[in-house]
Amino acid sequence: MSYTITEKCNGCGACMRLCPADAISGEKKNLHTINADLCIECGACGRVCPQASILDGNGIACTMIKRSEWSKPEITVETCIACGICVDACPVGCLAMSERPRNKGVDAFPYLKNAKACIGCGFCCQECPTDAIIMNKPEKTEATTKAKESA
Amino acid sequence: MSKAYMGKILMVDLSSQTMNEETIPDRVYEQYLSGMGLGAYILYNRIPAGADPLGPDNILGFCSGLLTGTGSLFSGRWTLVGKSPLTGGWGDANCGGTFSPAIKHSGYDAIFFKGISPKPVYLYVKNGKTLLKDASDLWGMDAVETEEKLKKQYGEKAGVAVIGPAGEKVSLISGVCTDKGRIAARSGLGAVMGVKKLKAVVLDGVQRIQVQDPKEMKSLSLKCIKWTNFPMPLSLLPGVGLALMGTFMGTTPVMFAQDGLLYKTILRTWGTGGMNQMSVEMGDSPLKNWDGSSKDFPLGKSKTINPDIIRKAEIVKYHCYSCPLGCGGICATKGKYSHTHKPEYESILALGGLCMNEDLDSVFYLNELLNRAGMDTISAGATAAFAIECYEKGILTKEDTDGLELKWGNAEDVVALIRKMVNREGIGDILADGSKVAAAKIGRGAEECTVHAGGQEPAMHDGRNDPGFNVHYSVEPTPGRHTIGAHLYYEMFQLWKRVKGLPRPSLLFMKGSKYKVNKEKAQASAACSKFMSMGNGAGMCMFGLFIGAKRVPTFDWLNAATGWKFTPEEYMTTGERIQTLKQAFNVKHGIKPKNNFISRRAQGHPPQKEGANRGRSVDVEKLAADYWEQFGWDRTTGIPKEETLKRLGIE
């Protein structure tokens, strides 16, 4: 089910600029709409909307999250089979296969090449056949928890 | 809709530069799957009888597999379809890489092109937008350069399929290239793209592929990974150990049925090239333009193509999309090009053994040269071998060859000759359309030196060693094809474990028994054809299927992805339907199946006097008749009977 935009939209265009499927259209300062045929339900629009005007596929309103706190993929190379499904699943192309193998291995492995572009959709994590990817909030929060632990 | 397929195709008319989106009814997918099956369905119905393959009526299709992007493994293959200018009949070429999911992400199961563009163009698809863009600045660039340029413009994520200069120059042995060196090479379909003035297809969509039961897909895939990771001690063996195994297999009169786990290990460790020396020794590789034997290319000569040497050049393994195995590799090379895709077994033996060429550096160079040019390494190597034989027999002289000394094993001149073929210069212009066309142009008895099936050069697997290859080279709607069936393939597919009524081959057997003609052989060959036609509709990799039908759960993946409840037997009927439709395509276009039989030399008439295949000959005529009967095609002509078409629902 496609995401939708409610009347609360103020037409800032943040979602439109971010949508990897070019599914959102609208004039500046006017109500925007989502083309259901193109929407891939990545949820980026909901996370970026300052008006909380976006409803997900189940009709539940999304809440805005600071972009620096969007979860990002963490890849466990040990269980990865180098099939490349995650790289293909990423709608913004922020994952890539390495050009060289790791340590004494022979296979390339996927890594977050362009962390800034990541929209935290989690498609890579969903589609990984070996569950080698988990979505986690980025380092900042981790660093603080680690600091807490050591303290 | 969550049924694994997108339910739509894009039809591009290059003559009028218009595009049309079409919805395909569910029943077509249920009957033909996607991929090659969908391609056959569209082409059979829409290409008028007798259409010129290089004319505007021919349709070229880029078809993704039904299982591509569904969470299944080994399902990243796409099929290029069209009427072949090389054979005049049904043409298809299969390719891996990452282009197959790109087709589906663009929102279509397949993209077809008809007509001829007045000027060079490329297609660009992104998020519902489809555009034909000017390609005049790309025209003339090689395949890798073109791809790099397009990816610079549209991002690394875009799926890009291109033709190189060989396709632009309408070489009948040219193909379509993706991922900087994976090539849909066979059937000469690069020429069709070239004549249509279509330089590239760039797909940059992000549409998602939905499946019916994602949980079941994942659990099936996890079980499959257990088998692909299954440890086999074979990987510890040095490359030469395989060669000695080959020597043993070439001399022993007793054979054992092979399990795909052995071959899987070879693929994982070395890639297809792991078979190089082993195949020469056991008589699987044709040598010296199919005239030589393993005695002409002994271990002392073949040691230069020892798979361990090739493995040393490998920087990193290359996996096609959704492949847990990774038989490909990226290699560092000396000379002009710094990198190349690891040369495949077929390329090494066609450019090496078939030309008696021992120089591995030249094979690496030619592999990259041909990938960039977008020319089929099998046909290019086979045509070079044909030219050498003509030269050695005096049919071609130094004057004809512009001063090249075309002698067996003369690496430098083989390189020079293939460069000429790529550029269509001098003798290369004659040879660039394959050996059959070249022989007709040369005359003077050159036809005697050709080995082809229906105009296409067969691959580097000798049907005198495994008669199954000769059957499939001769009877397939795409003649000369090695990726469908053989005695060995049937053993590895292990179809009898899933499909009722299929014969189980004996574990230990006398080699001579392979050459006997009986019903079991015909059943096995027919099963291979049905299974691979189905597999190509699903987008499955043959190497994955080799691991065994029980371990790589194609049938179950199909059901879980689509929500269908078909039995393995019903899926085999789907394969039968696709195969019969391709044969009907050939009949519609005036192909006489009997004329596609492989050249007598490769059948073992007369038999070889020495080497692993000494004294062996294959009765293709009898084997073909039995094969046709299995499908309900006429025993004498190979034409599908009315009742067969009716039973399968083909109109």
Quick synopsis:
The complex is a heterodimer of chains A (151) and B (651). Chain A contains 5 helices and 8 strands; from the N terminus they run βαββαββαββαβα. With 151 residues, chain A is α+β, with helices and mostly antiparallel strands.
Description:
The complex is a heterodimer of chains A (151) and B (651). By secondary structure, chain A is an alpha+beta fold. Chain A has two domains: 1-65, Alpha-Beta Plaits; 70-138, 2-Layer Sandwich (Alpha-Beta Plaits), CATH 3.30.70.20. Chain A is built from five helices and eight strands; from the N terminus they run βαββαββαββαβα. In chain A, the strands form four sheets. In chain A, strands 1-4 form a two-stranded antiparallel sheet. Chain A has a two-stranded antiparallel sheet with strand order 2-3. In chain A, strands 5-8 form a two-stranded antiparallel ribbon. Chain A starts with a strand and ends with a helix. Residues 144-151 of chain A have low confidence and may be disordered. By secondary structure, chain B is an alpha+beta fold. Chain B has three domains: 8-203, Aldehyde ferredoxin oxidoreductase, N-terminal domain (Aldehyde Ferredoxin Oxidoreductase,  A, domain 1, 4-Layer Sandwich); 271-449, Aldehyde Ferredoxin Oxidoreductase Protein, subunit A, domain 2 (Orthogonal Bundle); 467-648, Aldehyde Ferredoxin Oxidoreductase Protein, subunit A, domain 3. Chain B contains 27 helices and 17 strands. A six-stranded mixed beta sheet of chain B has the order 2-1-6-3-4-5. The model of chain B has no long low-confidence stretch (mean pLDDT 96). Classes of the chains: A alpha+beta (151), B alpha+beta (651).
